[in-house]
Design brief:
globular, about 40% strand, alpha+beta
């Protein structure tokens, strides 16, 4: 088994506390509302939403995947960090056991946010994951993030 790590960093004009509330804490409600073609629904299968919780995300008709299951490892509201693993679903190929994700939102000097993400692909056997394989997922996540950012700009009184 191998572990392949990819890091990404991008910025937003939205303050970190507001972005964390929308992007992490209320994502299960907000994303199906603003991008139903991407995510149809999210439901908790086990737990209370905190660490140890298992969630099932059902994708919308615009996706070529059906569902995934996430296991939440940590949510730190004060430091704006979130970590979880993709543990099941058709987004995992036969060569990938799981994918660990860590997201940290850091307040930027200009009042916005620096978003730092780390993805760790745990492969089965000697399979190698190349960055080109990860690129499509990064692009979809970036598009979804831009939708959330746009929603927050259009609805400035929400998530304060």
């Amino acid at each position: 088994m191998g572990v392949y790590t990819y890091e990404n960093e991008f910025t937003s004009d939205i303050p970190a506390p507001k972005l964390f509330k929308a992007f992490v804490l209320d994502a299960d409600n907000l994303i199906p509302k603003i991008a139903p073609q991407a995510v149809k629904c999210a439901e908790i299968l086990e737990g209370d939403g905190g660490p140890g919780t298992i969630k099932k995300i059902t994708f919308g008709e615009g996706s070529h995947y059906g569902y995934v299951k996430h296991k939440i490892h940590s949510i730190d509201k004060e430091n704006h960090t979130y970590s979880y693993s993709l543990i099941e679903g058709d987004a995992l190929s036969d060569n990938i056991e799981k994918i660990d994700y860590e997201t940290k939102l850091v307040s930027a000097p200009h009042g916005g946010t620096v978003i730092k993400t780390t993805s760790k692909y745990h492969t089965k056997g000697d399979v190698e994951i190349k960055e080109e394989h990860v690129k499509a997922g990064k692009e979809k996540a970036s598009h979804l993030f831009k939708l959330i950012e746009g929603y927050l700009k259009d609805h400035p009184s929400e998530y304060n």
